[in-house]
Amino acid sequence: MPSSLRTLLSSRRGALVMGVLNRTPDSFSDGGLFVDDDVALGRVEQLVKEGADIIDIGAESTRPGAARVSAQEQIGRLGGALIRKSAAQGVLVSIDTTEPEVAAWALEQGAAIVNSVSLEPAAELAALAARYDAALVLMHCRGSMSDMAGFSQYDDDAYGDVVADVGREWSAAADKALAAGLSRQDLLLDPGLGFAKNAEQSIALCGRLSELCALGFPVLVGPSRKSFLARISAAPGAELAPPGERLGGTIAAMLACVARGAAVVRVHDVAACVQALRVAAAINRDATEGGQ
């Protein structure tokens, strides 16, 4: 059996890296690339070699406006071999879904983490995670993906204080998860960068992430290739950089979040992000030791 997320979190010296693998035809940055089983298994192997601690596998796009995908279709997209073979090789697999039926199926196949982009199924998913001794990531979002207006588009006045509001709304869902039997140490907070937030709101969450870490749960952040990076960095009147050209912004946001306490980072470009994390850790370690 692969090491549990609980074990990795308790022994980590830096942020853990969650590599993204989408089994979807329509994801915003890599849709359709890994729908073949052999290609997907090869990608898992590559991401692990590049330094990923966790592989997050999903079969439903979470881009704004994406249509819901039924549980049965998600399971069909995931296929019968990918999770089972990856877990058998010692890979810590996360299933990216909000559907309890999909989560149960994936946990039976060997997944060890459920990663939900919605707070709504907190109790159901927590009960499943507890039954399988798995971890649960709950991401803050308001409404479904199909109802989201667009990439990093959200009313400026939708939050009184985005950090406080996200913390309060997430904590209410966390209470339901814990009441359903999930251990506190197996629950992770994701502030949902880019989900029901505009660019300024996502930046505020990055800048004040330590306030969310103070809630006492490991925090996972997923800035990778998000549109808020392009909006913040674009020159006035310029077109936004496409997802594949946002690595610089991804790394900047990732390092800022890790410096403020993020325990896990969810990224597409694993090799570059692992390199950045290792260099930053070495610099910080040298600065600390040099000041003693």
Description:
By secondary structure, the protein is an alpha/beta fold. It has 12 helices and 8 strands.
Terminal residue distance:
41 Å
> Number of domains in the coordinates?
1
Please report which band the strand proportion falls in: under 5%, 5-15%, 15-25%, 25-35%, 35-45% or over 45%. Answer: 5-15%
Morphology call: globular
From the coordinates shown, what is the CATH architecture?
Answer: Alpha-Beta Barrel
- Percent helix, as a range, is 40-55%
The CATH topology comes to: TIM Barrel
How would you write the strand order of the largest sheet? 6-5-4-3-2-1-8-7
Output the CATH class name: Alpha Beta
Extended strand count: 8
Q: What is the radius of gyration computed over CA atoms, rounded to a whole number of angstroms?
A: 18 Å
Structural class: alpha/beta
Mean pLDDT: 93
Q: How many helices in DSSP terms?
A: 12
Reported for the largest beta sheet, the result is: 8 strands, parallel
Let me know the CATH homologous superfamily.
Dihydropteroate synthase-like
Could you list the spans in which at least 5 consecutive residues all have pLDDT below 50? none
Order of helices and strands: HEHEHHEHEHEHEHHEHHEH
